[in-house]
Amino acid sequence: KPKTSITISIESKNTKNAIPINVETAVTAQEQQHGFMHRKEIPDGTGMIFIFKRDEKLRFWMKDTPHALSIAFIDSVGRIREIYDMQPFSLAVISSTHSVRYALEVPQGFFTRAGVATGDILSRDSLQAIKTAASLAN
């Protein structure tokens, strides 16, 4: 079945703008395990938000993922705690050092190009949309 798509926005302290991102939601274990595997085209301004039930230290890798990505680890109040770049097909594990609730994958370098940095926060409406998407998926 097609993934649910929502638009979220990150409030950038650098640019003083809200940066919109059209994201697919990954809520179920199957959606989270598949992620962006086998996806060759991921345009700027799009991504995937991984939604977890509780705060935890998250681990990601790029097995079978041909597109370079950046990942933001986001806590339960919507604050970006960490951002990392991930290389195509890499088996290296990228782990959050903080317990977080969400992970947001976008094309590599998009956060930098858009002026998004650690400490920036998801808008209240975005957090509500994410929570609604999670409840509809369960």
Describe the overall structure.
The protein has 138 residues and is α+β, with helices and mostly antiparallel strands. 18% of the residues lie in helices and 39% in strands. It starts with a strand and ends with a helix.
The radius of gyration is 14 Å
Low-confidence stretches: none
Shape: globular
Question: What distance separates the N and C termini?
Answer: 14 Å
What string, H for helix and E for strand, traces the elements in order? EEHEEEEEEHEH
Strand content: 35-45%
Q: Reading side by side through the largest sheet, how are the strands ordered?
A: 6-5-8-3-2-1-9
Main beta-sheet annotation: 7 strands, mixed
Helix run count: 3
Brief overview:
The chain is an alpha+beta fold and 138 residues long. 18% of the residues lie in helices and 39% in strands. The strands form two sheets. It has a seven-stranded mixed sheet with strand order 6-5-8-3-2-1-9. Strands 4-7 form a two-stranded antiparallel sheet.
Write the layout of secondary structure elements.
Elements: E1 5-11, E2 18-26, H1 29-34, E3 46-56, E4 59-60, E5 69-74, E6 80-86, E7 94-95, E8 100-107, H2 110-114, E9 121-122, H3 124-137
Parallel strand pairs: 2-3
Antiparallel strand pairs: 1-2, 1-9, 3-8, 4-7, 5-6, 5-8
